[in-house]
Structure formats: C-alpha cells, structure tokens
Automatic annotation (TrEMBL):
PROSITE patterns: HTH_DEOR_1 (PS00894). GO terms for molecular function: DNA binding; DNA-binding transcription factor activity. Transmembrane segments: none annotated. It comes from Thermohalobacter berrensis. This is Sporulation transcriptional regulator SpoIIID. It holds the Pfam family SpoIIID. It comes from the Bacteria. Keywords: DNA-binding, Transcription, Transcription regulation.
C-alpha cells in the first residue's frame, strides 16, 4: 500500500508541474480529494523526492498568488451569463 501512495504522490507532482495545475484540477484528474493531493505534495513528496517537491511548491505558490484573479474572472463570467440569459 505504501508503494502505491508514493507512486501516486510522484505522479501527482509530475502532473502539477507539467500542467501548472491547481490542487483542485489535480484532485479531479486523479479522482482523489484536494486534501489528499495537498498532503501528497506537501508532506509525502519532500521525503520521496525533494527536488520535485521544490518545483511543485513553486507552481502551487504561483497558483495561490493568482487565485484572486481567477476568482474575479469566474464571477465576471457568471454575471455576464446571467445578464445574457435575462435578455
């Protein structure tokens, strides 16, 4: 069982790096919870492969810094769609 978890953590990390994916996107692709993705890349991965863990951390920090922008765009699109549907 432990091997599976370690393999999953590395695969998740590779996906996040390659796709510049968010935790939410990654969880959806791998069929696990956001908590599992976060635990894999912040707790398990540094023990397995510190080099990859550092790269994942950079991507996640960038995503975190930009999330308010994505949220604003989503809200704008929501209200734009509502306005169009009322016409």
């Amino acid at each position: 069982m432990k091997d599976y978890i370690e393999e999953r953590a590395v695969e998740i990390a590779k996906y996040i790096i390659a796709e510049k994916a968010t935790v939410r996107q990654t969880a959806r692709v791998f069929g696990v919870s956001k908590s599992t993705v976060h635990k894999d890349v912040t707790e398990r991965l540094p023990k397995i492969n510190p080099l990859i863990a550092g790269k994942v951390k950079e991507v996640l920090e960038k995503n975190k810094a930009e999330r308010h922008i994505r949220g604003g765009k989503a809200t704008k699109m929501k209200y734009k769609a509502l306005a169009n549907s009322e016409r």
